[in-house]
Structure formats: C-alpha cells, structure tokens
Amino acid sequence: MKSEILKCLGKFPEKTSLKVKEINKIDYGDYTEILLEYNVEIGERVRSYILIPKKEGVKPAIVAIHQHASNWDIGKSEVVGKMDNKMFAYGFDLVKKGYIVIAPDLLCFESRQGNEKFRTDKEMQKMYERFEFCKYILNGSCLQTKYLHDLSTAIDVLCSFEFVDKNNIGVIGHSLGGQEAIWLSWYDERIKCCVSSCGVSCIKDILDYEILHNFALYIPNISNVCDMDEIINEISPRAVLLLSGLKDEYHFPLSGIEKIEIKNKSNLNFKSVKFDDGHKFNIHEKNIAYDFLDKYLK
Fold first, then answer.
1. Can you give the pTM of this predicted structure?
2. Which residues contact 223 (CB under 8 A, 6 or more apart)?
C-alpha cells in the first residue's frame, strides 16, 4: 500500500546539504534553547528551536509539531513555551523530562508566512496557506508532501548531533500537529513512538460530516486508495497513541476514530484514549502522553 500512497503524495522535494547554523542560544538553567537555521531544499532555509537538557550523555529525542488553530503567526514558539497559553507547550514539558526536542515551523506558520503581502492581516495569512496548497497541486505534489519532507529533514537535523539517541526518536503534536505526527510516523521509520492529540479521524467520516480542515489533509486520490485507519495500521508494530475528545466531533468524528480502533486492535503497541472534553490537551491527557513516550523511548 505504501507505494500507492506515495503516488498520491506525488513529487517530493529533493533533499540537500543541511548546513545547520546556530542563530541564537539561551541558557535556561536546566536546559538550553537554540534557534537553528538549516536547508530543507536548495534555496530554502527554515528555523526550528532545539531544546537540550543539561544532563550529559546521549538522550532520546522528540519532534514536537505545533497546532493550526488559524493562528498562522504562531508555530514553534507555542510548543517551546513562549506563548501565554501553556496547554500546548509540550516541547517545553518534554525537555524538562529529559528529552531533546526539536520544534520546527511548518510552511505558512510563524517564520514561514510568506512575503509582506500575506502578512497584512489574518485573512491574507489564510490566503497564503491556500496559495501554497494550490501551488503544490499544480506541480504534481501537495501540501502534505511538503510537510512530510520538511519534518523528515528535522529528523535529519536531530540525527546530525552526536548527543541524540538515533534509535529512540518520537513525535508528538496536537490538532494539525497530531495529524502530522501520524503521517510522519508512517513516512519515516526512524520514528519509534507517536502521540497524536486531537489530530485524526477517518477522512470519509470527516467528509460525511462536511467538516472543513487544514489544506494538508487533502491529498489527491487518497480516498480511492486508503483511509487513516489503514495509514495508522501501516505504522505497526511501532507505537501509536491517539488522544481524542468526546466533545471534539466538530473536528474529528468519533465514528472515524472507532474505525481506527477496530482496524488497529491487533497492534499491541497501539493505544486509543477518549476523554470527556473538546479540542484540548489537558494535563491529565498530557501525562498519559508523556508516560507513553517514556514507555517506548526510555
């Protein structure tokens, strides 16, 4: 099935030399925050935060992917705890638990919002995401393909450091970040453990409920090949945790989540937890997520 899905994803960008550069470095006492810049394609450099615990030795690492929330001016900064709302500062939480964390900006967010024309107001920021989606479709690709390429490059960056345990890399994300955590785990087998918070349902159910989603959800011809229950099943036997709000049907229908659970019930490393709330990542659910990562990465 993987080859058929790759056909749907279309043309991937070519990887190039990373040429990692340190832009800024802050010592927070028990960990160090470094703003990195590196190549994802020839002529395209992106910025990511990397958080490094002070404790010496080789350590497991996490790719922490930000949410969408129609806040295009916020990306990686929320994940590392620089915004007022700490609910989604899971990168900050995880470096405190001893993980190396890389938090990149996805295309269209924070440092990657396009030129000044698209930064004038929220409506133009929204139009930039639409513009990029259309551009990639016209070139035989899609926005999901670009996200996968760039996130896989973030793993390349992690693996370029000697202090990263390359055999113990996980991924975590909420909402759009949870969607991308699933897709990255499917695409890049260096991911050993995946946590998706309020980030997935079956695409058929999302369409049946007439729910509009982020542009990366829409992959040409994917509905004729598979759905997310099969994508997650292809990650097996690697570990996957889904956290889903019972009151989050506006984003991710429970009927689709139940299909995922049925399809993956034979995977002993698959776990699905439903909680009585909406599109959130509360402390109780975060503790479940962190315990899950600890089980498979430490």
1. 0.98
2. 203, 204, 207
